[in-house]
């Protein structure tokens, strides 16, 4: 169970420390600090690790990596590498934003991080928090949309039921008006037949007497 809790949902390393919960590519995952930063280039400066809360620096105060969407402060990049700038992860394939150092060689339970790793941890935590806030907002909007759709569907169903009841009542009213006229017509026909039979009988009797 502890191994599953310490396993990154992206790099699948089981020795990752302090996983961040966030929404990544349409699903909720727990990622390590290094994977959070490597998969959210452009949201922070890869050198000073400052997260861009709203917008990245203006064009005249920033440099973009030639190999990825990473954006760095112009003041964080040396003038000698500004012309062909590549961010630290692109410059070094073994680069890692976050690393945990152990204490003494015989003390495996003691861990500590340096200042750069601490800054990386804070940056990843901010990005994860922003991701979850955005996901919560989208979930609330989606829930409100579904509530409105359900209310509209309920209204349409009620209107359809009322229409059905109205048509049923009209049909019954029509039948009630039609049945008495049919009964009167049948009664008239029956009366005529009865009268005709009586006349016929009287006529036959008269012939017999003559």
Automatic annotation (TrEMBL):
InterPro entries: Znf_RING
Domain RING-type: 45-91
Name of the protein: RING-type domain-containing protein
Keyword Signal: no
Positions of transmembrane segments: none
Amino acid composition bias (Basic residues), ranges on this chain: 190-201
GO molecular function terms listed in the Swiss-Prot or TrEMBL record: zinc ion binding
């Amino acid at each position: 169970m502890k191994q599953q809790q310490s396993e990154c949902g992206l790099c699948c390393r089981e020795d990752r420390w302090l996983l961040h919960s966030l929404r990544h590519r349409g699903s909720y995952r727990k990622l390590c600090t290094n994977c959070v930063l490597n998969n959210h280039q452009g949201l922070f400066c890869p050198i000073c690790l400052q997260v861009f809360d709203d917008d990245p620096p203006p064009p005249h105060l920033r440099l973009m990596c030639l190999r990825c969407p990473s954006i760095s402060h112009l003041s964080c990049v040396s003038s000698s590498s500004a012309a062909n700038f590549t961010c630290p992860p692109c410059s070094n394939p073994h680069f890692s934003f976050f690393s945990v150092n152990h204490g003494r060689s015989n003390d495996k339970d003691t861990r500590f991080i340096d200042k750069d790793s601490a800054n990386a941890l804070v940056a990843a935590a901010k990005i994860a928090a922003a991701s979850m806030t955005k996901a919560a907002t989208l979930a609330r909007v989606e829930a409100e949309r579904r509530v409105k759709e359900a209310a509209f569907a309920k209204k349409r169903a009620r209107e359809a039921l009322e229409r059905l009841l109205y048509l049923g009542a009209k049909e019954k009213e029509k039948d009630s008006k039609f049945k008495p006229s049919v009964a009167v017509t049948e009664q008239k026909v029956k009366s005529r037949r009865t009268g005709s039979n009586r006349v016929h009988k009287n006529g036959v009797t008269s012939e017999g007497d003559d």
